[in-house]
Amino acid sequence: MELIHMVRMVLWGFFGVRKSASHEADLANINFSWLPFVAVGLAALIGACILGVVLLVVHSTGATAQGF
């Protein structure tokens, strides 16, 4: 359950909008030793999703790199 709270806190941090009271409550209950790993993992997951969508769009249009 603590992992879900960390993921939620990191995603709200990525989004950038948060009430101060909710932020204070999360900081009181989080294990800070795992927080950087969760943040880097979520950033990599979001980046991989964006890359996957881009590759899907590029390959579905049949675009070729002409002139290169």
UniProtKB/TrEMBL annotation:
Positions of transmembrane segments: 32-58
Keywords from the UniProt entry: Membrane, Transmembrane, Transmembrane helix
The protein's name in its UniProt record: DUF2970 domain-containing protein
Organism: Paraburkholderia hiiakae
Phylogenetic classification of the source organism: Bacteria, Pseudomonadati, Pseudomonadota, Betaproteobacteria, Burkholderiales
